[in-house]
From TrEMBL:
InterPro entries, A to Z: O-antigen_ligase-rel_domated, WaaL-like
Annotated localization: Membrane
Natural source organism: Pontibacter mucosus
GO MF annotations, alphabetized: ligase activity
Main location: membrane
GO CC terms of this entry: membrane
Membrane-protein topology: Multi-pass membrane protein
Organismal lineage: Bacteria, Pseudomonadati, Bacteroidota, Cytophagia, Cytophagales
Stored PANTHER family: LIPOPOLYSACCHARIDE BIOSYNTHESIS PROTEIN PA4999-RELATED (PTHR37422:SF13), TEICHURONIC ACID BIOSYNTHESIS PROTEIN TUAE (PTHR37422)
Record keywords: Ligase, Membrane, Transmembrane, Transmembrane helix
TM spans (from-to): 12-28, 34-53, 60-85, 97-118, 139-160, 187-207, 219-240, 252-277, 297-327, 347-374, 390-416
Domain O-antigen ligase-related: 219-367
Name of this chain's protein: O-antigen ligase-like membrane protein
Length: 423
């Protein structure tokens, strides 16, 4: 397939497409009238999704039917659900029923975004432009954003810019004003999700041809400045996977893996999540000391103890789409944990959240769609097979299902490009 540089001026969409992706990737916390900017932009394509429902890829239709069933089942479950609404800053859109509708609209935005990726890549591929070239446009745009982030972080670190007045860098030790610790978060709520997103971008560089070291270096720097444990694990897991793919046929490989690589990976992995391991192992003693620490009684660590109780009580259909924060203060779920005063999210990743909110039903059907999609496309397209694997990897590491960037990989997979990944 030929690469045509002169088509940049002729095909204006090749300039608009990266801008569209930038908005959908980054602006997760910028809102207008309570609606996130990235989701608002993506929702503008919903009429395109609905009008072409008969001609769009069948797997997107399967996802749409599944998400509709989530909403319908949740409405039925809510009739017999006790909600705990004494939460600070509880907006109307987060009330029972409305939060489920909001979550469904967010998922609809994700499908619309995946459709746009799928259609755009197909359109330009059919006109002689390599997938690698289109992806590089997206990555280059993110490179410029990362350069701005790194510059702001550096100026903040050097006290040239104020840490307190910064919107994309924040202090992780605000309780100790004499020892500020800047952490990059971009337009995400905190550094963890930003770092995981840049880990996904780093992995995406393996899908393009040509020079890519500058892209990878900038994305890794952002990842380090964000202090994202999930992002670091994602990069390590990806390189371990690549090493496995390259040498799995060698007879000596299994012995190297068992004697060296697996222990090294396990050691690095446990070092990265050491704080979580310590908190879980000493949970009972820490609860009494940190009852007012929102970082402990909310989020991922608390969810490790709350979600099993939810699943045991609601195994088939879960607690309902978007209902986690509204029911997590149920004493039967909390155990020894104090109730949360604010809006909480489990932070355990897509599959765990699906199990909690949509039960075995939701998790099983979601995995089956991914499985049949992988079986359909991986046979004829290396890019499609790898894109689905990246989607699963990121989903395992704490991202939420309504984050648009993970659906970029679904759109890429459905386009089934024939370009081989550059080794």
């Amino acid at each position: 397939m030929k690469r045509i540089e002169s088509l940049d001026t002729k095909h204006f969409g090749l300039w608009l497409f990266p801008i569209y992706c930038i908005i959908c990737f980054h602006f997760t916390e910028v809102k207008f009238a309570g609606v996130k900017l990235n989701e608002l932009v993506s929702l503008l394509t919903v009429p395109f999704l609905i009008s072409g429902i008969k001609s769009i890829n069948k797997y997107l239709v399967y996802f749409l039917i599944l998400f509709l069933s989530f909403l319908f089942i949740t409405i039925c479950l809510n009739l017999n659900t006790t909600f705990y609404l004494n939460l600070e800053g509880l907006s109307p859109l987060k009330l029972p029923y409305l939060i489920s509708v909001s979550r469904f609209i967010e998922l609809l935005a994700c499908l619309s975004f995946a459709l746009m990726i799928y259609k755009t890549i197909n359109y330009y591929s059919n006109r002689g432009i390599e997938v690698s070239y289109t992806l590089r446009k997206v990555l280059n745009a993110n490179f410029y954003i990362s350069a701005i982030f790194l510059l702001v972080f550096l100026l903040t670190y050097l006290n040239i810019l104020s840490l307190q007045n910064s919107s994309i860098v924040y202090d992780t030790t605000s309780y100790d004003p004499n020892n500020p610790t800047p952490r990059l978060r971009g337009f995400y709520v905190e550094g963890g999700p930003l770092g995981l997103f840049y880990a996904a971008l780093y992995i995406l560089t393996f899908f393009i041809k040509g020079r890519k070291w500058l892209l990878r270096a900038s994305f890794l720097l952002v990842l380090l400045c964000s202090q994202s444990k999930a992002g670091i694990v994602a990069v390590l897991a990806w390189h371990f996977y690549l090493f496995y793919q390259n040498f799995k046929s060698a007879k000596w490989f299994r012995y190297v893996v068992l004697t060296a690589l697996l222990p090294i990976f396990y050691l690095v992995f446990t070092m990265v999540i050491a704080n979580y391991i310590h908190a879980v192992q000493n949970f009972s003693g820490i609860v009494a000391e940190r009852q007012n620490d929102t970082n402990f009684v909310m989020g991922r660590i608390a969810a490790v103890f709350i979600t099993p109780n939810m699943v045991m009580e609601n195994p088939i259909f879960g607690v309902g789409l978007g209902n986690y924060a509204l029911v997590r203060n149920n004493p039967d779920y909390l155990g020894i944990l104090p109730p949360s005063k604010g809006w909480d999210a489990p932070g355990l990743g897509v599959f765990a959240t699906l199990l909690v909110e949509n039960g075995i039903y939701g998790l099983t059907l979601f995995i089956l769609i991914l499985y049949f999609m992988y079986r359909r496309y991986s046979r004829t397209s290396v890019v499609s097979g790898e894109a689905i694997k990246v989607f699963v990897l990121i989903c395992l590491l704490g991202v939420q299902l309504h984050f648009l960037y993970i659906w970029f990989f679904i759109g890429l997979a459905l386009a089934a490009p024939n370009d081989e990944i550059d080794s």
